[in-house]
Write a structure and sequence with these properties.
The chain is 40% helix and 25% strand. It is built from ten helices and ten strands.
Length: 288
Amino acid sequence: MTSRVEGVSLVEELKWRSWTGVIADVWSVRCDPVAKGEYVSEDPRLFVILDKSDSGNFNLSLDPANRRSSHATAPHSMSYIPAGLPIWGHLENVQTLRHLDLHFDVQALQCRFADELIGDQLLVPRIMFSNDKIAVLSQLIAEECVSARPLHALYGDGLTTALFVELFQIGEAKKRQRSQLSPRQLRNVTSFIEEHCLRNIRLQELADLLGLSQSYFSHAFKASTGMAPHQWQMRARIRKVQLLLSKSGSSLTNVASSTGFSDQAHLTRVFKRLVGVTPAVWQRERAS
């Protein structure tokens, strides 16, 4: 993205994450009494206001003279800007602003939803609208960007997929029953997850394994197993943890490190949520 700004400065370091075909940026800025900016992105972009100082006006416009502008009215106003379309921002007496930028690759998006039609929606700008579902998903995505202990990639892929479904209303016009995976497909994909569960597995990897779009695969996998792919992977990872903990002299810190958890506390939280007890209690009960 190229930009030219006046009267805007970063309050803290830019935070960002990338998932399949998506780059998410969280910006925290301080603004002069009068500030402005011009932005052009090579990829489609969703701009979401996360927090804004109560006073002041923030306007976005497709017109550099600001003759046809829309201003932020809802707490989490957002704008969808197609690829290559210039946009101008004008701020008056906005002291602080925190916002999320989602840049996404069109080809990757089409791969996710190969069985659905997005079509001309990608070409239509939507300036300063509100959507409660997208606002919630944007907050969760922003939390992943700033988290010191981000979850694995399937979680981010799931959030962005849900956001795109809502943003472009994918599948709304034709609701149909999703079929389950065949026994062979399910066996292949679950075996792959079990084998690679200690690393981040991309949703695209799993979909490509079966020759399906990400959207179709996600629905079919859940219809077949009752859970999302990232939940299946985490349960597989916990089974690896239990295997290591069953060996005498195993250190919880070493087990956490070798099974992809950020630290012992992270492992303990996930283990208790899925097993019902902490790893230490599980070890004692197994020993007795």
